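ok so for the tutorial part 2 we go from a plain amino acid sequence to predicted structure tokens. step 1 is just haveing the sequence, like this:
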Amino acid sequence: MTEKSFKAGDTVKWDHSQGTTTGKVVRKLTKPTAIKAHKVAASKENPEYLVESGKTGALAAHKPSELRKA
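step 2 — the prediction. this is what the tokens look like for a chain of 70 residues:
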């Protein structure tokens, strides 16, 4: 299985409880990180992406499998 890959500045979209949101990739996370009080268990083997919501400006970490290019 090929892992999805994104780079900083890519426009992506993802689903959540209120529908679909669009935003931009800020950076790839490859080590454990904290966003506010949420701990992100990212690693080189299991990276996540820091994404900024286009609607609210909020930052969140997402697994590559949750994101798709917009």
